[in-house]
Amino acid sequence: MTATYTFDVFSSLDGFGGAGGNWTGYWGKQGPELLDHRLALYAEEQRMVMGANTYRAFAEMLAASTEDSDVRDAWVTRMRSLPATVVSTTLEGPLDWPDAKVVSGDAVDVVARLKEESEVPLRSHGSLSMNRALMAAGLVDRVQVTLFPVITGRNGLAPVFQGAADFDLELIESRTLDGRIQELVYRPTLHV
Questions:
Q1: CATH class label, 5-190
Q2: 3-class DSSP string for 23-59
Q3: DSSP letters along 97-150, please?
Q4: Could you state, in order of their start, the residue ranges of all structural domains in the chain?
Q5: Which of 101, 112, 127, 185 has the most crowded CB, counting CB atoms within 10 A?
Q6: What is the pLDDT of residues 49-99, one digit of tens each?
């Protein structure tokens, strides 16, 4: 039996994973329902998988944050406590992450092996280019998009699916959080 792999990503309506300018974390749209739901998602036993750039971004944000910042929301603290695999050809351990290990190699090979060996589900939050490659290889079982009600046309950063292959998506779950944020969970299939 293989472990389920979920690509978990935040997005603006126009497909950006973040924004510059005067946008704040969560584009300033988070509420208690979203934060409680995120904590419940990460309360489940699972292994985090991330690329080197996402690991560096999280480590930098957490190091620069305070106890009161969005970066240290309870779900992020919980995510950081989960076992993690960082796929990288440039990083070397030890990492500034409690239970993380660096695995060198091609992400497709590493994740294929993890899916076969892991006794718990796998989840990746962010790691856009890595997850686009994993989707193209058929290794992503679920794409979980948390869609924030903003358009960041001028200040959008990190286009989530730029350069991705074409996929058909089967909607398997959906919910509205705080009356304005959509969470959509899809099963992707490579479009041929």
A1: alpha beta
A2: CCHHHHCCCHHHHHHHHHHHHCCCEEEEEHHHHHHHH
A3: STTEEEE-S-HHHHHHHHHHH-SS-EEEES-HHHHHHHHHTT---EEEEEEES-
A4: 5-190
A5: 127
A6: 999 999 998 888 777 666 666 567 889 889 999 999 999 999 887 888 889
Q: How far apart are CA 48 and CA 15, in angstroms?
A: 23
User: Which 8-state DSSP code applies to residue 19?
Assistant: E
Instruction: Retrieve residue 141's tokens.
Output: 């079982």
Query: Ramachandran region of residue 143, left (φ > 0), alpha (ψ -120 to 50) or beta?
Result: beta
Please list, residue by residue across 137-150, b when 16 or more beta carbons sit within 10 angstroms of its beta carbon and e when fewer do. Answer: bebbbbbbbbbbeb
**pTM for the structure as a whole:** 0.94
Average pLDDT, the chain: 93
Distance CA 182, CA 171 (A): 13
CA-wise closest residue to 61 among 79, 43, 88, 45:
79
CB 134 within 8 A of CB 164: no
Per-residue tokens: 147: 């869609």
**What is the Cα–Cα distance from 10 to 25, expressed in whole angstroms?**
11
Residue 32 amino acid letter: P
Predicted pLDDT at 66: 65
